[in-house]
């Protein structure tokens, strides 16, 4: 049972990015307004995510890391109107199978005391210790993938690249999440930690971008604010009668600058309803538009595609990073025209 659980867990947590994504999304789901992510040795030694969210209630200590435990979904109909990132109850259980995993947590009424919870490889609670703890939750992942030696070796070999990808993902969360302060820290194995980047709890994505990429980058951007109306030409899907047929594209994009010289970093971030995700076809389409105007560099793009939840499918892969847009081709044509 244990090795089957490890293999299944390895499909939920595929790399360093999955770990950080799951833990940060849990913090956001817990209504955190401040999230600190700490890496030791680029995450090889440990990854820690601390938040000031609701904390875990004592009645859930036994269950939180068991497979399929979730406190987030009360009935199956909720799936279509899901407001939280999580609902599968697989992340913590998978992390238990793939690392030494522990949590310290306190709800408002308990702070400044809380509990440290240790779990075994099957996600069963193995000890509960009284500790000093501010309101919120800190999840600690040590020795990621040590239970899967081939995966550990691979991670070790590619750690610099993996860590770079993780920072890119954290930039994306830090830019899209308004009113949440992000702090990212790194330390070498026995060294002191240094701040990699941080944001304030800004109430706009503009200010977030200025915190992450600098005021100079911000000044080279213009707002991206498109409404694509599919009412007339988007074929209705059978299950889709509640759809408004409208799609909003909100964000920021490089002002077209003609000629030489790089004004903005080469960064393209896409979101669907605020969830970071890769949308390579859409990236390609936007780059083509900029190229067709003879703009010398590919633009900085920060674009959130806001649409009805039944216009896409986040559930195609357990790690939820792949998003299938229905009617992507029509969307792309509309987007090109609008740009
Ligand atoms: P899911 O997010 O799909 O519910 P997880 O395995 O990620 O599943 O988490 C299991 C449960 O643990 C959550 O439903 C929640 O009750 C609790 N939990 C995890 N992380 C946090 C956190 N940072 N703050 C509060 N509760 C948390
Ligand atoms: Mg989760």
TrEMBL record:
Residues 209-339 form the DNA mismatch repair protein S5 domain. The chain holds residues 9 to 347 of 1039 of the full protein. It comes from the Eukaryota. Belongs to the DNA mismatch repair MutL/HexB family. It comes from Knufia peltigerae. This is DNA mismatch repair protein PMS1.
